[in-house]
Amino acid sequence: MRFTTPTELADKSATLASTDRKIKKRVLVCSGTGCAALGAFEVFDALVEAADGAKLDLQIELAPCADHAEPLYATKTGCQGFCQVGPLVHIQPDDILYTKVTPKKAREIVEQTLQQGKVIDKLLYKNPETGERIAERSKIPFYQNQTTIALEGCGRVAAESLDAYLAAGGFAPLAKALTLTPEAIIGEVVESGLRGRGGGGFATGRKWRSCVAAEGDERFVICNGDEGDPGAFMDCCIMEGDPYRVLEGMIICALAVGAKRGFIYVRNEYPRAVSRLQAAIDACRAAGLLGDNILGSDLDFDIRISRGGGAFVCGESSALMRSIEGNVGEPRAKYVRSVAKGLYDKPTVLNNVETFACVPAIIRERGKWFRQLGTEGSAGTKAFCLVGKVVNTGLIEVPMGTPLRDVVFGVGGGIINDRPFKAVQTGGPSGGCLSEEHLDLPVDFDALTAAGSMMGSGGMIVMDDHTCMVDVARYFLKFLLEESCGKCVPCREGIFQLHAMLDAFAKGEGKTGDLAKLERLAEDVQVGALCGLGKSAPNPVLSTLRNFRDEYEAHIERKKCPAGVCQAITTFLIDAEKCTGCMLCIKACPTEAITGQKKKLHAINQELCTKCGACRLVCKDDAVVTT
Amino acid sequence: MTQILIDNRKFNAEEGETILEVARRNQIDIPTLCHHEALEAVGACRLCTVEITGEDWNGSTKLVSACLYPVEEGLIVQTRSEGVLRLRQTVLDLLMARCPESTVIRDLATQHGQVTEYQQFTDGSKCIMCYLCVRACAKLGCHAISAVNRGTLKEVAPPFHEHAESCVGCGTCATICPTGHIEMVDTAETRTIWKREFEFVTCKVCGEPLITKAYRDYALENRRLPNDYYTVCSACKKSELSGHFARLSL
Ligand SMILES: Cc1cc2nc3c(=O)[nH]c(=O)nc-3n(C[C@H](O)[C@H](O)[C@H](O)COP(=O)(O)O)c2cc1C
Ligand code: FES
Ligand code: FES
To answer: What does the pLDDT read at residue A451?
Structure first.
């Protein structure tokens, strides 16, 4: 159906919402990347088949039904966040969360939960600390400290259905925006205090306003879905799980700045994001939500997907624009900003996926509402990908201002095996590592920058005491070395040399004085590089130097890796006092370097040991030590 | 017209001019490696870095590339501040480690003195990734070569390292290359470059190689030249003309 007025849209949304309200039980099968990889599609098919077999009235689309009917409804949603215990099945309105569901268990869900209304205990999440099963999703610690705005619909609505988005109130913000002047829309975004979620944290409203002020006969709106940070998948989840929200944010922006054409730049490694966005764009075109005269207004705006080759540097604004133009994705110096001279040298607004995803809620609830969440300088919420040595990994969204401690130990449930916390890395590859003393810092653009790290786009990697910070810096520099566009000397050659020095430290080949050399070069790359990649590339080095300097010194002066990671300077030994002779390490060793008998002291043959650390990982008594 | 300060001296500048243009016009030396007045600046070498500030900047300063930075009223530029010299040094040290074989770099390094030694590349490459060849080729309209790959693997090459299809063998890239990195072999009949061999058109008068056939065809097609434009070499054209004038003046 093609909407020609906002009223037609509102009517349709109301009808869909009333249908939606009649649903007696709603089965939300997570089909985010994580759960899909674990077999979520098979789970969904098994569920539908079993319901069919049981002759249940299970709908998979929102369809009008008789007044007295109480249909069941099942759908595939985007990432529900708790990927670690997927495939997830969330049942509403009871708020039951089933974890690690298999096709076989899906059939049980139909039989017991849908038919008999019983909760299946063994599929519930088990609190690792208390051993207790938690039935309601909202009582699971992982979900308890979260507030969702950008992820509002992700994991809650059918990812592929415009109807589902409309039933949940989607596109009402656009209809509202159409009644406002462009300046009023921008005013609302300014008022909200929204800052870009892609890394730089630039004030979004101000960016839109500068675009309007810039001279040009044509303007563009671009959504940055490049998401190059290793370990980050927030934007991917939003594009896959709630594509209409991103489109709506872009359309509202186009309305505000007067753009007629928009682009979404997505890496081709995100095939599902590409196909869902394309399907959503097609559906919006057919519904009169994209194209000429949107909802019967004067607004003409259309969006095209531009697929990237997956270069990290193509997430940088000027490189991204060159790439869309069909040129080599190399950054330019930004002495003239891209809001004034961006794509094809025309005024351009470039915002991140999550930034756009926040816009509909801001228009709906007003800027003031958004601003009262979060901190003075950082309003609203922020999505993170929580990964590393933390008990609960997954996709989360917390209010700005939440202390890092609450994220790592609250939402994240602490460190795996109760090992000591060592560091948390934020801000992606060119972010920084924060230590124990920073745990009470709030999640806030300025606070993280002041501590030597940055917000970045929202990667958060938790590290325990078995992580070597020299090795961490080396890892990120290796990534940046390969991803540097290679155009300017400080970045291309500087990162290479920084990495070479770290490599030498890891091999025990560092010399006294090398730290000063490392620091000096790191500072020079910071000021001398052409674009943001090079300017921020030394961050992993400088932040680890700042917070873990003694570890560098140990590598250089004593030729030792305190965390027992850098293989060339580490020896694995068994502590005779602690070893209980359980043989676990013997089984784990891939090179059969460990010998010993049950309940007798084990020993490591240094000739055969490859220092992989497998023994240390499995030892329950901390009897494997390194020197 | 705007006024800016470079090394404490006042200069007039046009709107849109770069710091480097103003400096060069006034004989202020700023070293460059990737700049060429006929080509659009890319800001690759960073050797031209200068320090800027403004009266209302509250004392904060910024290092920028002179070849790219457009001047603005009241801009204050230092071309030899401590920060500038340090970065220049680092850029040269890094390039010395990268392509010690290149004479341009060695000369500059001798002039400025090497400070820090970094791990040397031993591949013998002389390329400093200044992009002069790439930009010149694009400007001539051929786009036969481009910068490919990323990081330290970055290099100039034809697409997919295959022989350069749209190359016409004009040789501009090899001529503009400041380090002699681009290999071009000429014989009396042919020119070999980017894995392709081109036949020469020879001068009707002296028989010397004049231009590759492919370049002649390309130029005739794209530059609206008379069909017989490339038949006589410029030396012979000159002597022919001077003979002509000599006869006239008799
Ligand atoms: C090397 C580099 C990589 C970047 N990668 C991304 C990215 O993957 N996604 C993104 O949204 N922004 C990325 N950015 C930031 C963008 O340049 C730009 O600031 C951002 O997309 C603007 O949107 P925002 O204001 O909504 O954050 C990157 C920046 C740099 C320097
Ligand atoms: S993919 Fe299912 S929870 Fe993330
Ligand atoms: S001359 Fe300006 S960066 Fe090379």
So the answer is: 92
CB A351 within 8 A of CB A168: no
Nearest chain A alpha carbon to B145: A328
Instruction: Suggest the residue from B60, B67, B90 to mutate for an interface test with chain A (most A CBs closer than 10 A).
Output: B90
Taking contacts as CB-CB distances below 8 angstroms, the residues of chain A near B129 are 486-487, 489, 492
Q: How far is B122 from chain A (nearest CA, A)?
A: 14
- Quick one: how many helices (H) and strands (E) in chain B? 7, 11
Does the C-beta of B47 come closer than 6 Å to ligand 3? yes
Ligand at shortest distance from the CA of A308:
1
Do the chains contact at B91 and A528, CB–CB below 8 Å?
yes
- In the structure, what pLDDT confidence band is assigned to residue B70 with cuts at 50, 70 and 90? very high
Above pLDDT 90, what percent of chain A?
Answer: 92
Do A58 and A92 reside in the same domain of the chain? yes
Q: A188 and A174, same structural domain?
A: yes
Domain-terminating residue out of A464, A495, A511: A464
Task: Name the residue facing B44 among A482, A487, A520 (closest C-beta).
Answer: A487
pTM of structure = 0.93
Asked whether residue A422 falls in the same domain as residue A288, the answer is no
Measure the CA–CA gap between A177 and A401, rounded to whole angstroms: 29
Together in a domain, A213 and A357: yes
State whether residue A237 is helix, strand or coil.
Answer: helix
Q: What string of DSSP letters covers A536-567?
A: HTTHHHHHHHHH-HHHHHHHHHS---TTS--G
Give the span between the Cα atoms of B130 and A392, in whole angstroms. 48
**Crossing angle of helices A549-557/A514-528, nearest 10°?**
130
Query: How far is Cα of residue B131 from the mean position of the Cα atoms in its chain?
Result: 7
Question: What phi and psi, each to the nearest 5 degrees, are found at residue A106?
Answer: -65, -40
Number of domains in chain A: 5
Nearest by CB to residue B129, choosing from A313, A486, A521, is: A486
pLDDT digits (tens, 9 = 90+) for B135-162: 999 999 999 999 999 999 999 999 888 8
Q: Tokens at residue A495, please? A: 């990162």
Asked if B63 and A461 touch (Cβ cutoff 8 Å), the reply is no
Distance CA A498, CA A475 (A): 12
Our answer on whether the CB atom of B45 is closer than 6 Å to any ligand 3 atom is yes
Instruction: Determine the Cα–Cα distance for residues A121 and A39; give it in Å rounded to an integer.
Output: 21
**A14 contact partners, CB below 8 Å, separation of at least 6:** none
Asked whether the beta carbons of B118 and A503 are under 8 A apart, the reply is no
Given A371, A394, A410, which residue is the final one in a domain? A371
Quick one: tokens of B34? 């990737």
Instruction: State the Rg of chain B over Cα.
Output: 23
Q: What is the dihedral of CA A563, A568, A572, A573, to 10 degrees?
A: -110
- Tell which residue, A163, A160, A142, has the closest CA to residue A32: A160
pLDDT at B250 over 70: no
Strands (E), A99-208: 125-126, 133-134
Residues of B with CB under 8 A from a CB of A: 42-47, 49, 63-65, 68-70, 83, 86-87, 90-91, 94-95, 97-98, 116, 118-119, 128-129, 131, 146-147, 149-154
**Which uninterrupted H or E stretch holds A186?**
helix A182-192
| Residue the block writes with tokens 């999550």 | A354
Q: How many CB atoms lie within 10 A of CB A474?
A: 23
